[in-house]
Amino acid sequence: MIRICLVLRLTVHSPRGLQFQVGADEAVAHIRRKYGSRWLGASQEFLNLGNPSAEFLPFYYCQGTVHGIFRGTVSYSDSTADSKGNMHSGSRHTTTAPQPLNTIFGPNQTQIYAGYKYNIRHVHTALRNEENPLYLRKMSMVDATQATINLFEQSTATLKLFVEEEVKRQATETARAIIRSFHPGASTIGVEFLELNIRLEEVTPVFVPCYVVKAQYDRQEYTLYVSGTNGTVSGPFLINALYAARLSALSVAGMFILLWPNKVTGLALGSLISVPVYYIAFYAAKMFPSRRRDYFRWQRKKLRMQHEEKDRDGFRPHVSSKRVEEEYRRSSYWDTHAFQNRQHSSGPVRDSRGYYRALGLTGTESVNEIRSAYRKRVLTEHPDAGGSSERMAKLNEAYRVLRDPERRAAYDMGN
């Protein structure tokens, strides 16, 4: 039985960021190069790329320790010959004794995307890099004038679930490597943890530069990601449907010709069957990228709803954090954010137009808390849910003002 215990006695550091090292034109060139080199990849004349959007995506860089006990199941493949020279294959299995595993995980290998806005797999592929922790800076030293800063959508309470999954994968790979060192000739190795204790000790919120590019292909819109530090490209596998259909049809026709005893009959049957195969392969190749995109969107929506209650506070330090007394408003964006650093009076906040009251707020909440409150109100106040249009218009007006730090500051001053 696997027992996983993730202890959150952690330190939440002030946010850090990475500088853009790749230009927008370079990002487009990297995309063209990657999608042009894929076998059966997208047809370049039908791949229309929009203007790259420079954005900083939120990540958690995590550090901690792992202590566990595991055992392995090792399989060997054997081939023997009988007296007549016929070969017979078989397999044998063995189970190793329980072994301890004591290791650490660091920010160079445990980097978790802290949002639901974009495809998590593609973002991880493009933006994870072992060298990133070496170049972290305070956000006051990062040039973000032409870029969009994305909010942290996951709290540290939600983070533990994703860290548990990622660190368990790392621990499994480490355990498999240990077993492989004693059984180099094994064909397969399975790992079972009898006990696995993960201790998350430090978390650094990091804004990672990324170019987000909207691409039009085959009348569908897709999102591509280019790392702003090294130009790594990630995105959906866009298939050239015409090439895929032709290859499928030719493969079927060739198979019939090769396997059928009468080549003329094989050619006739292959030609006949290759026609429906051509159209099936063509439309399957056209539909696969968009269906996969929609599936991942549904997954992100499900994750967002599943963790909404835990995520409403953004990355406020956990209740057991060593820095729990540190105000969230001081660390929710970066060290010198204009609104988060301003002095808040202990008295009531001015609410001349009732914007805070409309959202059920007091005036000292973070941007993430404002957004969470707005979402909850929409679920009940939207006209489709039985609410009124006037009430919904009031909520939209309040949200437009309060989510913008400059407009919110002006509103709090009574302007």
UniProtKB/TrEMBL annotation:
Report the residue ranges that make up the J domain in this protein: 354-415
Signal sequence span is: none
Annotated TM spans: 266-285
Q: Which SMART domains match?
A: DnaJ (SM00271)
Which controlled-vocabulary keywords does the entry list?
Membrane, Transmembrane, Transmembrane helix
Coiled coil ranges: none
Renumbered residue ranges of the record's region Disordered: 81-102
**Family matches, as InterPro entries:** DjlA_DnaK_co-chaperone (IPR050817), DnaJ_domain (IPR001623), J_dom_sf (IPR036869)
Top-level taxonomic group: Eukaryota
What PANTHER family does UniProt report for this protein, alphabetically?
CO-CHAPERONE PROTEIN DJLA
Q: Under what name is this protein listed?
A: Putative DnaJ chaperone protein
* Species per Swiss-Prot/TrEMBL record: Trypanosoma cruzi
